[in-house]
Write a structure and sequence with these properties.
The chain is an alpha/beta fold and 486 residues long. The protein has 13 helices and 21 strands. The strands form 6 sheets. The protein has a 7-stranded mixed β-sheet, sandwiched between helices. Strands 3-2-1-4-12-11 form a 6-stranded mixed β-sheet, with helices on both faces. A two-stranded antiparallel sheet has the order 5-6. Strand 1 (5-11) and strand 2 form a beta hairpin. Helix 7 crosses helix 8, helix 8 (340-366) packs across helix 9 (383-393) and helix 9 (383-393) crosses helix 12.
Length: 486
């Protein structure tokens, strides 16, 4: 075993994944550990329990390093990538003032107002950087949402109003660096906790979707990337820090000076697939291996179900958007002939049809035609879902070569930062490989084209029912008063 290695940390919404990856993009060891279930201590509040992000990083890193059979002295650096849109409140010692606020917590879209007990307000990556290095530094590309950052300059805003609007004075915020820059070095305490050698440099990456795009090889305006995570979104490359329409928004890319254009998405996207998997078996699988066995069974059964699932359609608002909290998920079209395989496939088809609509909106707004679909994330492991996506999108569909594309992207950032590769282009060329290709079946593509027209109207037809239900008085019967008195 020759070459140089980097340690890639990918902290996601449902699990933490850590890999040792060489300078050619080959994974030599890895470990993955599920995060504990979110806690919802009050309506609108969603938090990671206790110190779960750090605890899972410690355990997963130690296991990945234990499994590595190479020369540990050849590990040149750490690349740190974590969940975006979280908010972390720290005390003066850099410890949690309260559990990490998930991106699903309503408070992350409101100004900070926690008072004097909080000495630092940061992202999940800023928090884990502090735990690993003892320094309050973070990648500018980790910041989207309600933060006083200037998208154009990638620095903290010079407008005092930005700090008033967010409730975050500058002294609460971490220093910003670009992707590939040094965050700090692993402290003796962090080394003892994680097994990472003390003094190893830790390099900045970006928000997890951007790092995933980097690891998937997204670098052409003719290609769209579909990220199959807890939050499902589509992305393409961009050059402007401002969006020209509301059909997409602008995110930082994982290489300095680059931007991504991102579609609307599905909240709790692949979470819904996991939810039904566990529901169909009556209990949650106890290990990743048992979960994979269950999913293989469901995929095999659902592959025998024809497109359209006998009239069953899944509306995927299992977690409604903030602007329409009355929305709910729905399964529509039962007639007694469907079983668990139909429901499972209907959820997969709902993902594909929803995202095909969002991508079509991006194409119109950007005046582009995407000729290739690249798919990344855990869901890309499913041959059935990959084929459904190819049939629904009716264009060449490629699976990212490494399912944990965010981990590979983090490795690229670390490799550039540590000088393992001299620049971003060289690192991408050396470390990103093409994955398996899926080709649309003409008959199924025609069937989904017809189904897509029906599916596109599903939300507008059902939403009035949920809106009416949400506005009725507590305990009111059919026809009872609404909350507005009408």
């Amino acid at each position: 075993m020759t070459g140089r290695f980097v340690l890639a940390i990918d902290g996601g919404s449902q699990s933490t994944k850590v890999s040792v990856i060489d300078d050619h993009g080959t994974v030599h060891s890895s470990s993955q550990r599920a995060l504990r279930p979110y806690q919802t201590p009050a309506p609108g509040r969603v938090v990671h329990p206790d110190d779960d992000l750090w605890d899972s990083l410690r355990a997963t890193t130690a296991e990945a390093l234990h499994r590595f059979n190479g020369d540990a002295t050849q590990i040149a650096a750490v690349g740190l990538c974590t969940i975006r849109f979280c908010r972390v409140l720290l005390d003066a010692d850099g410890r949690l003032a309260e559990p990490v606020l998930s991106w699903m917590d309503e408070r992350v879209s409101r100004p900070h107002d926690e008072g004097d007990r909080v000495a630092h307000v940061t992202t999940s990556s800023g928090y884990l950087t502090a735990r690993l290095t003892g320094r309050f530094r973070d990648s500018y590309a980790a910041y989207r949402g309600l933060w006083p950052i200037d998208l154009r300059t990638t620095a903290w805003s010079t407008d005092p109003a930005a700090y008033e609007t967010t409730g975050m004075p500058r002294h609460l915020l971490s220093d910003l660096v670009p992707p590939g820059d040094l965050l700090g070095t692993v402290t003796t305490a962090a080394a003892a906790a994680t097994g990472i050698p003390a003094g190893l440099p830790v390099f900045a990456t970006a928000n997890d979707k951007a790092v995933e795009a980097l690891g998937s090889g997204l670098n052409s305006p003719d290609t769209v990337l579909l990220s199959l995570g807890t939050y499902i979104a589509a992305m393409t490359t961009g050059t402007s820090s401002e969006a020209a329409s509301d059909g997409y928004w602008v995110n930082f890319g994982a290489t300095p000076g680059e931007y991504l254009y991102e579609s609307r998405g599905i909240r709790r996207g692949m979470w819904t697939v996991s939810w039904f998997r566990d529901l169909a078996w009556g209990l949650a699988p106890t290990t990743r291996e048992s979960a994979e066995v269950v999913e293989e069974t469901l995929n095999a059964e659902a592959a025998l179900v024809p497109p359209g699932c006998g009239g069953l359609m899944a509306l995927l608002d299992w977690l409604p958007p903030a602007e329409a909290p009355h929305r709910r998920g729905a399964l529509v079209g039962f007639d007694g002939s469907q079983g668990r395989a139909h429901v499972y496939r209907a959820i997969l088809e709902g993902i594909a049809l929803t995202m095909a609509g969002h991508v079509a909106r991006m194409e119109r707004d950007l005046d582009r035609a995407f000729d290739t679909l690249v798919v990344a994330g855990g869901g890309s492991r499913s041959p059935l879902l990959m084929q459904v996506l190819a049939d629904v999108f009716d264009r060449p569909t490629l699976r990212a070569a490494v399912p944990d594309a965010a981990g590979l992207g983090a490795a690229i950032c670390a490799a550039v930062g540590a000088g393992v590769h001299p620049d971003w282009a060289t690192a991408r060329a050396a470390m990103v490989k093409p994955g398996a290709a899926f080709v649309a079946d003409p008959a199924r593509a025609d069937a989904y084209r017809y189904l897509g027209e029906t599916y596109s109207r599903l939300s507008e037809l059902i939403e009035p029912l949920f809106d009416w239900t949400s506005r009725r008085g507590p305990g009111a019967g059919v026809g009872g008063p609404r909350r507005d008195g009408s």
